[in-house]
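We now fix the convention by which a protein and its fold are recorded. Here is one such record, which you should read through line by line:

>
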Amino acid sequence: MSKQNRPVVSVVGAGNVGEHVANILAIKGLANIRMFDLARKTEDKVFEVVKGKALDIKQMATSLHSDVEVEGFTVTPEGDGYEPLEGSDIVVVTAGFPRRPGMSRDDLLSKNVGIIRVISERIAKYAPNAIVIVVSNPVDVMTYAAFKLTGFPKNRVFGMAGVLDTARFKSFLSMELGVSVRNINAYVIGGHGDDMVPLLSVSSVAGIPLKEALPEDKLNEIVERTKFGGGEIVNLMGTSAYHAPGSSTAYMVEAILQDKKEIMPCSAYLEGEDGEFYEANDVYVGVPVKLGRNGVEEIVKLNMTEEERELWRKSVASVKSGIDRIKELGLI
């Protein structure tokens, strides 16, 4: 495939997560990449960091014989400089203020909705046919904001959360059991936060139900570690994770570009029949979806135990409160 015929993935926000998304896509040669970010200013110099990162990633890709285009574009907080979004097949949004120690995801609401507004308006203007994947935290609320602000159909706007949460869950299970992650089938649904819901009833190791593979106390310990997996890394590094979020996002992009029809948990919009099944309406929250060329092509209905259903309702209520809050503040 020639460079001209490759799909285009734009990454808005070239911080740690954004550059890792671009890195993985470039290494795999999945798409031509356009990166967007603000300049960094000091007292005597302006650094166009995004252009430097794009050039560095391009040279890295070349060293690995991956012949993709990688370009960086400096934009302004007011929204100038986004014209190169034109022609994007997928736009990944990672821009926003990072989570710091002691900061909850909801602390980020007011600052990050303003950023999402500017970006969403530019996506709608320059890339009206693109699929949008939101990574910015709090992701379920930010995805809802992007959905409303772009005006795109629900299948083309969704968030990255469940893939990351599930990867953390499977990592901890693999470490405890001493088996390959390939032998572990698991789902984590719900809001991307402390109220996420690992579905033990449908999770297994080589076909053995998790509740049979591990003692209850050890399984509960792993569930709790998964729920606070992001916070654990924040406390260790002083900032949010980026390797796993970056790879999780790239995994979603690959599923779309290659029309894999792969089922994975994503933050998707619930309404109608799907909303009735999951007891949630007019909300973005993590559920299993089928990802393909058209984005979210189906929301998969997974049955839950009554205990899981109660945890699910609590998680949905938590996300809903964030959405209601940005409405109350007049942010969308």
Summary: The domain at 162-328 is CATH 3.90.110.10 (L-2-Hydroxyisocaproate Dehydrogenase; Chain A, domain 2). The radius of gyration is 19 Å.
